[in-house]
Write a structure and sequence with these properties.
With about 170 residues, the chain is mainly β. It is built from 1 helix and 16 strands. An 8-stranded mixed beta sheet has the order 4-5-1-7-9-11-13-15, with no helix packed on it. Strands 3-6-2-8-10-12-14-16 form an 8-stranded mixed beta sheet, with no helix packed on it. The longest helix has 8 residues. The chain is globular. The relative contact order is 0.17.
């Protein structure tokens, strides 16, 4: 599952094998339906499956000037099996990954926190503007933040390559 959205949060939960369920919510501030259409015309919005890859994309088109406060925000909720790889990115929101993951995961945000239950899959977590919290690191973990703390509830005995970094907060691992 590949997610790349602008201005909103990403939430995932563990679901049954063989099925991915995606909900994409858009929030647009405008006075008329015509203004909504004009604003959304500046964005590429895609929810698609190509073979074994599910893509969720809601990004401003290249070369389009930002409308600042009138820019829409996109948030997504995804139910995905634990053994499916996740690549999650948002420019302005938090990322929450619920359930134990057995596949690897890459999550990055420039404007929010990252919260992950954990699991046996390799985790690569990055944020420029928030904290990172991991419930259980049972494999490799890279957690980097410029603007918050890093907290890991449990590091398993088989975990390797544990790299925790912050420029603006504390680091705590049990």
């Amino acid at each position: 599952v590949e997610v790349s959205i602008s201005g909103g949060s990403i939430r995932t939960s563990t679901g049954p094998a063989g099925r991915v369920t995606v909900t994409l919510e858009e929030r647009v501030y405008a006075n008329t339906a015509r203004e909504v259409d004009e604003i959304l015309a500046d964005y590429d919005v895609v929810v698609a499956q190509d073979g074994g890859t599910v893509t969720v994309k809601a990004l401003q088109k290249e070369g389009v000037r930002s409308r600042s406060w009138r820019s829409p925000s996109f948030s997504t909720t995804i139910e995905v099996p634990a053994d499916v790889r996740l690549n999650l990115g948002t420019s302005g929101g938090r990322i929450e990954v619920g359930g134990e993951r057995s596949a690897s995961m890459d999550a990055h945000t420039s404007g929010g926190s990252v919260t992950v239950d954990g699991g046996t899959g390799a985790l690569a977590l990055r944020t420029s503007g928030g904290s990172i919290e991991v419930g259980r690191a049972l494999s490799s973990l890279v957690a980097e933040t410029s603007g918050g703390s890093v907290r890991v509830g449990y590091v398993g005995p088989a975990a390797d390559n544990i790299n925790l970094q912050t420029s603006g907060g504390s680091i705590h691992a049990d």
